[in-house]
Write a structure and sequence with these properties.
The structure is a single chain. By secondary structure, the chain is of the alpha/beta class. It folds into three domains: about 1-240 and about 355-415, 3-Layer(bba) Sandwich (FAD/NAD(P)-binding domain), CATH 3.50.50.60; about 245-350, Succinate dehydrogenase/fumarate reductase flavoprotein, catalytic domain (Flavocytochrome C3, Chain A, domain 1); about 435-485 and about 485-510, Fumarate reductase/succinate dehydrogenase flavoprotein-like, C-terminal domain (Methane Monooxygenase Hydroxylase, Chain G, domain 1, Up-down Bundle). It has 14 helices and 16 strands. The chain has helices at about 15-25, 45, 60-70, 80-100, 130-145, 225-230, 265, 290-305, 320-325, 330-335, 390-410, 435-450, 460-480, 485-510; strands at about 1-10, 30-35, 50, 125, 150, 155-160, 180-185, 190-200, 235, 240-250, 270, 310-315, 345-355, 360, 370-375, 380. Strands 1, 2, 5, 6, 7, 8 and 15 form a seven-stranded mixed sheet that branches. Strands 10-13-12-11 form a four-stranded antiparallel sheet, covered by helices on one side. Strands 9-14-16 form a three-stranded mixed sheet, covered by helices on one side. The protein is globular. The relative contact order is 0.17.
């Protein structure tokens, strides 16, 4: 089956929905929003802490936010990208408010701002401790009420369509690769349909599910990054995987692990060993409010020194009613496993959280493939550099969705649908009855990445990961060519591709920088500079 939409949006988090709303309201054409499960399930929903923007001009300004971002990114960040996001953040907040998103306010009507690790001022807008869920709710309502947007739930993008599918040889040196849409699997019919578009946006989120423990939902398998890489698009900075320092330690719940927001440390939470001893003073003068890479490595080191499987976050010294008010969901979640956070320490450990690299894009969100844009966590704008500053990701998605929408609306009239694209050919393939192999391979990818490509790395570990991923790649590609596509095998292919990219980029970076720390080129992030 062939479908045609002027704008094809793959991914339904804050990035994809913001873009879809912008282009739909322009009247420039039809919009399809593709999500591989339901509209509700996205990385955005899991974001607890908030969204960063300069709003209190009495004490804060753009220059401070820019400097905080550059420091957190270890000065690898692209200054132009940082400038673009920070200065356009207030407009992005206004867009969210206009779409029906609510942020907490004080009695006087001002925003109730939080402060998080790496920020020099209180500038985090939030909705209790479930800001991402509130943003997702507001955007979903706006999307569902927009008659120009067709929402395609439970549809899975298998590959983007380029000249390669027309029989033309495409390599990484081909200068004019074009995207004509995507091949999309409809699990209900089991068929891969052809979706032609004039413009395609990739907004598929992150990669956390390739690790054994992650704060991301299971759908975060790096699909967009893998598809663009296979299509010979440029991918950048994949070595910079951010591990959130504090997810709830609960061995029964690893995918996703429950996030203990950074805002809890901004609120006054103190990191301690289980015996009550503080330890962050050994690593950074900012103590528990140091940037995430420093805190995560400090926790990792303390766990290894003392043979622990977790450390603790302490808010027992804070007013119990205020704690319940500010963090109602965390309070309720911890009570479920028998922990009253107003009286007891919260057991926490680092967990894979955010991909700072991804599909390389310019200031308009354009990828190296013509007619293809990328926004949100699957993209690499240059904002995050070596390490993402807390709560910068949601605002990056909104700002770049606006930039990509403006640019694509300016140029879309230059493009036509490519009617020469062939339909997906699965002739000669068979149904895959070997689901046990796929499930086992997913576990193996998780173990390889967590063991060898985690918070602390070495050349030996990275090369071992490379060799094992290469074997999995060969086995999986052989199976993929023999069977009809399913969501499971497509996700496995993408996880292996992304694991390979993270490992390769980590091997190529011969220094410890930002989130990439290797014992072969040590520059301890916790050393005094």
């Amino acid at each position: 089956m062939i479908q045609k939409y002027d704008f094809l949006v793959i991914g339904s988090g804050v990035a994809g929905m913001s873009y879809a709303l912008k282009v739909a309201n322009s009247g420039k054409g039809s919009v399809a929003l593709v999500c591989k499960t339901t509209l509700e399930e996205a990385n955005t929903t899991k974001a607890q802490g908030g969204i960063a923007s300069v709003t209190n001009l009495m004490v804060d300004n753009f220059e401070k936010h820019i400097e905080d971002t550059m420091i957190a990114g270890d000065y690898i960040s692209d200054p132009a990208a940082v400038e673009q996001v920070v200065r356009n953040a207030p407009d992005g907040i206004r867009d969210l408010l206009n779409w029906g998103v609510n942020f907490d306010k004080k009695e006087n009507g001002d925003f109730d701002l939080h402060r998080e690790g790496g920020h020099s001022e209180f500038r985090i807008l939030h909705h209790a401790d479930d800001t991402g869920a509130e943003i997702q709710r507001g955007l979903m309502e706006a999307v569902r009420n927009n008659p120009r947007i067709t929402v395609l739930e439970n549809h899975f993008a298998v590959e983007i369509i380029t000249q390669h599918h027309l029989g033309i040889r495409v390599t990484r040196r081909t200068p004019d690769i074009e995207c004509f849409g995507a091949y999309i699997l409809n699990p209900e019919t089991g068929k891969v349909d052809t979706y032609l578009s004039k413009v395609t946006l990739m907004a598929t989120g992150g990669t956390g599910a390739i690790y054994a423990t992650t704060s991301n939902p299971n759908i975060a398998t790096g699909d967009g990054i893998a598809m663009v890489y296979r299509a010979k698009g440029k991918v950048k900075d994949m070595e910079f995987v951010q591990f959130h320092p504090t997810v709830l330690f609960n061995p029964r719940e690893t995918h996703p692990a429950y996030l203990i927001t950074e805002a809890m440390r901004g609120y006054g939470g103190i990191l301690r060993l289980p015996n009550g001893e503080e330890f962050m003073q050994k690593y950074d003068e900012r103590l528990s409010l140091a940037p995430r890479d420093i805190v995560a490595r400090a926790i990792d080191r303390e766990m290894k020194i003392h043979g622990l499987d977790h450390v603790c976050l302490d808010v027992t010294h804070k007013d119990p009613e205020q704690t319940k008010h500010h963090f109602p969901n965390i309070y309720a979640k911890c009570l479920q496993i028998g922990i009253d956070i107003t009286r007891e320490f919260i057991p926490v450990a680092p967990s894979a959280h955010y991909m700072c690299g991804g599909i390389q894009v310019n200031l308009d969100g354009q990828s190296s493939i013509q007619r293809l844009y990328a926004v949100g966590e699957c993209s690499c704008t240059g904002l995050h550099g070596g390490n993402r500053l807390a709560s910068n990701s949601l605002i990056e998605a909104v700002v770049y969705a606006d930039a990509a929408a403006k640019h694509s609306m300016e140029v879309i009239d230059q493009y036509e649908f490519n009617d020469k694209v062939p339909e997906w050919n699965d002739e000669g393939t068979m149904s895959n009855e070997e689901k046990v192999l796929i499930a086992q391979d997913v576990k193996e990818v998780n173990q390889i990445m967590s063991t060898y490509v985690g918070i602390v790395r070495s050349d030996l570990r990275l090369h071992r990961a490379w060799e094992r991923l290469d074997l999995l790649y060969e086995e999986t590609e052989h199976l993929f060519k023999r069977v009809k596509p399913t969501k499971d095998i497509c996700e496995l292919r993408n996880m292996i591709n992304v694991g390979y990219l993270i490992t390769r980029h980590a091997i190529e970076r011969k220094e410890s920088r930002g989130l990439h720390y290797t014992i072969d080129y040590p520059k301890h992030a916790y050393d005094k500079k």
